[in-house]
Backbone:
């Protein structure tokens, strides 16, 4: 099976084939600037020590400090972090924000750890990475299974080590510790703005039937935002299973059910389906919001959605991209569709550097104006190169990176 980094490199190469890219710049982008892998010893609650592996990969900082989340997951490995770092460089360029690309992680199932153990693990990651972090160097953020709690802890370690308590070293912090209004829902909100900008162009009706894979931070908020706007959520899932309801799921009830039972499955009034069936459910809009490599050559031909809208990073393999294209299923790529998170993260960083605090209204107004303009740039780029939106987005990113790297 191809790993996520091979997919990311293939996407870069496929876009670069369409336009003459300076060969030195292209080679730089095929390589990562720096990789740091550390052992993090953690004293567990029972007094025993466990060693975890932590990562930070810095891909490119031509447009600004390395930027990208920290993922806690049992499947985190170096190739996943490399891929996510490369996508961050491209995403920040597509979003037009002054940031480069990086990503971090720890190979751990956080559900196996107590809050105290998680705190010691997070502080250990921060101490191990201290030399490379900094508001003008490398600015991490949350990703799968990390929350504002972890971001606050890393900001605290950084302040203790350097005396800089501005918080600008990391984003996604709690509001009390310098977080931005709107950061919690920014990824989903941003994706909805992109959807609004492109909806008619991509041939979707005013009211869409929506399927969301993954009912976590990004997926739950997307479900709330899309249904509030009158669209119908017909199916959703989490790692434990999937549920379907022809005339629409009640998102508030699903959210409450997940809080009490830990999953969306077995909610009253909905049918249980498998995670595989969820992806091939008939709908207008399929929103993968879980992990990488979900739509592959094994299931792409069976996708019945009109549009795949990538809220997750890297959910579609390169082969699947081609199969979807052949089947006239349009893909709105991750590096555009989920760029709202890093954009509001950048607003948080800016507020911390300037000592300001913007209202949610101000944050979302800026986000909307920016992302809707970028969505149209991607559309135009794809149209003029007569290609799909993924290559269009990569071409736009490459153009912007070339400008500064030259
Ligand atoms: P999360 O941990 O809050 O949620 C992930 C959800 O996916 C969970 O509900 C989990 O149960 C579910 N899931 C895992 N495996 C699954 C499977 N095989 N089938 C169905 N569901 C499954 O994480 P998140 O922050 O919402 O991130 C989700 C995706 O969005 C990731 O790819 C992440 O990189 C991307 N993303 C997140 C942000 C952000 O700000 N949170 C920003 C940009 C991109």
Residues:
């Amino acid at each position: 099976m191809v790993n996520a980094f091979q997919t990311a490199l293939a996407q870069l190469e496929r876009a670069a084939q369409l336009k003459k890219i300076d060969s030195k710049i292209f080679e730089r982008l095929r390589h990562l600037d720096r990789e740091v892998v550390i052992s993090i010893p953690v004293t567990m609650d029972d007094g025993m020590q466990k060693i975890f592996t932590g990562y930070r990969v810095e891909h490119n900082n031509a447009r600004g400090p390395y930027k990208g989340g920290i993922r806690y997951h049992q499947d985190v490995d170096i190739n996943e972090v490399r891929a996510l770092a490369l996508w961050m460089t491209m995403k920040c360029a597509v979003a037009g924000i002054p940031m480069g690309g990086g990503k971090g992680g720890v190979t751990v199932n956080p559900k196996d750890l107590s809050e105290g153990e998680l705190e010691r693990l997070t502080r250990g990651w921060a101490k191990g990475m201290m030399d490379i972090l900094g508001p003008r160097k490398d600015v991490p953020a949350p990703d799968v299974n990390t929350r504002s709690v972890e971001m606050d802890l890393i900001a605290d370690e950084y302040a203790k080590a350097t005396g800089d308590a501005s918080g600008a070293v990391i984003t996604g912090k709690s509001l009390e510790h310098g977080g931005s209004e709107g950061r919690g829902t920014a990824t989903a909100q941003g994706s909805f703005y992109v959807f609004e900008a492109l909806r008619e162009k991509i041939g979707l009706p005013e009211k869409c039937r929506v399927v969301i894979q993954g009912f976590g931070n990004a997926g739950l908020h997307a479900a709330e935002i899309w249904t509030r706007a009158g669209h119908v959520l017909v199916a959703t899932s989490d790692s434990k299973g999937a549920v379907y309801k022809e005339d629409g799921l009640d998102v508030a009830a699903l959210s409450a059910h997940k809080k009490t039972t830990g999953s969306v499955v077995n909610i009253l009034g909905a049918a249980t389906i498998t995670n595989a069936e969820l992806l091939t459910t008939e709908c207008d809009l399929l929103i993968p919001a879980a992990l990488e490599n979900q739509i592959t050559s094994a299931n792409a031909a069976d996708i019945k959605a009109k549009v795949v809208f990538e809220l997750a990073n890297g959910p579609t393999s390169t082969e699947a991209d081609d199969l979807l294209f052949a089947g006239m299923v349009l893909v709105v790529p991750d590096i555009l569709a989920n760029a709202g998170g890093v954009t509001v993260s950048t607003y948080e960083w800016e507020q911390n550097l300037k000592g300001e605090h913007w209202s949610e209204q101000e944050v979302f107004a800026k986000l909307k104006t920016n992302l809707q303009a970028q969505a149209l740039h991607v559309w135009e780029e794809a149209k003029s190169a007569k290609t799909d939106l993924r290559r269009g987005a990569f071409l736009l990113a490459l153009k912007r990176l070339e400008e500064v790297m030259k």
